[in-house]
Amino acid sequence: MLPHPFAYHRPETIAEALELFERFDGDAAFYAGGTELLLALKARVLRYDHLIDLKRIPGLSGVREDGGIIVIGALSTHHQLSCDPLICDYLPAYAALSGDVANIRVRSAGTLGGNLCFAEPHADPPALLAAMGAEIVLQGTDGERTVSAGDFIESEFTTAKAENEILTEIRVPKPAAGARFAFRSFGHLERPAVSVATGFVPGEGRFRLWVGAIADRPQHLAELEEMLNEAGPGAVDDVLSREVERIAGDLPAITDLHGSADYKRSLAATHIRRCVREVVMDQK
Known about the structure:
Helix 10 runs antiparallel to helix 11 (236-249) and helix 11 (236-249) packs antiparallel against helix 12. 36% of the residues lie in helices and 24% in strands. It has a five-stranded antiparallel β-sheet with strand order 4-5-10-6-7. A four-stranded antiparallel β-sheet has the order 11-12-13-14, sandwiched between helices. Strands 1-3-2 form a three-stranded parallel β-sheet, covered by helices on one side. It has twelve helices and 14 strands. It is globular, with a radius of gyration of 19 Å. With 284 residues, the protein is α+β, with helices and mostly antiparallel strands. The chain has three domains: 7-53, 2-Layer Sandwich (Uridine Diphospho-n-acetylenolpyruvylglucosamine Reductase, domain 2), CATH 3.30.43.10; 63-173, 2-Layer Sandwich (Uridine Diphospho-n-acetylenolpyruvylglucosamine Reductase, domain 3); 180-279, Enolase-like, domain 1 (2-Layer Sandwich). The protein has helices at residues 14-23, 37-42, 78-83, 85-90, 92-98, 104-109, 112-118, 125-131, 149-152, 222-231, 236-249, 261-279; strands at 7-9, 28-31, 50-53, 63-66, 69-73, 135-140, 143-148, 153-155, 158-159, 166-173, 180-186, 194-201, 206-212, 219-220.
């Protein structure tokens, strides 16, 4: 099926892109890699009279350092991030995730910013970015604001981004010395049925745990985090054997073509154990 006819616009500045959106009174969509948007347009799930292509705007792609922050341009593709030197050096778990997104076509064209803004629940990046303490930078006509990665996705296909805002960059703190992050996912198709992201920062003695793809937004396992923080890395097996089945069993989960809710909770429990053990491997 072909999409409804639309006009195609290629602004060269963020201000021009925002002005175009305002001019078309919301009957427009910002366009990045298009791997999600074009499928929805072809299926006629979405319909817009105008597409505003952001790829000509300088500064929206690439990775740079800004003090203690790794700044990722929103139009950086998954493939670019999988082999970027800064990502590989400072965020190797994220580089590995990027190299395993969907398929080579999606990795080559799909952008991190587009992935986040579309907010498809079975996406790879959101849970790990939340565990890493990332922030999402949004630019609108009223200025710039930031939203934590853990709060950015509000529900299925819904984010904290206003329609007239552009996601410009993702800011990830450089991990402290000795910090480790792990990401595991499992699915029968190109999207995960469940993903788990964990981190451990030894200087702070802090664990970070998020589960993705299981529900309409990433789930923060704050209760299990606190138990592990109190127990310390030497006692993770005791905590996991005692609590992980109960906590995973209480997770909100959606039955869909990726599996039943109970199946996803079982997968989550397995990957929580594996990810937590992975990040404390050298800390016991």
